[in-house]
Design a protein that fits this description.
Elements (H helix, E strand, L loop, with lengths): L1 H55 L2 H10 L24
């Protein structure tokens, strides 16, 4: 009789631990799915930000702002000087 009660107690404990572990696994899976969804949203946002950055940095846009808002002009060719690069560590 005692042996049967002991086996019954072990069976109930095993059943409860099985239910508990399955519940925990389901919760973790739901959390994993949420994190995957968040990662997808962040990837989309990253792509949009890269596109926006490339749009803001377009040469034509920068040139237009420089000429219209900052009153910058390309200097005449007579005022442009080319400076040859110097190697690092050389003494002039």
């Amino acid at each position: 009789m005692r042996f049967n009660l002991l086996l019954l107690a072990i069976l109930v404990a095993c059943a409860l631990s099985l239910v508990s572990s399955q519940h925990k696994a389901r919760k973790l899976y739901v959390e994993l799915q949420k994190e995957h969804e968040l990662a997808k949203q962040l990837d989309v946002e990253w792509g949009q930000l890269q596109l926006e950055q490339s749009t803001w940095a377009m040469h034509g846009r920068v040139e237009k702002i420089a000429t219209q808002k900052l009153n910058m002009r390309v200097p005449p060719a007579t005022r442009i000087q080319n400076v040859p690069p110097t190697s690092v560590g050389s003494n002039p």
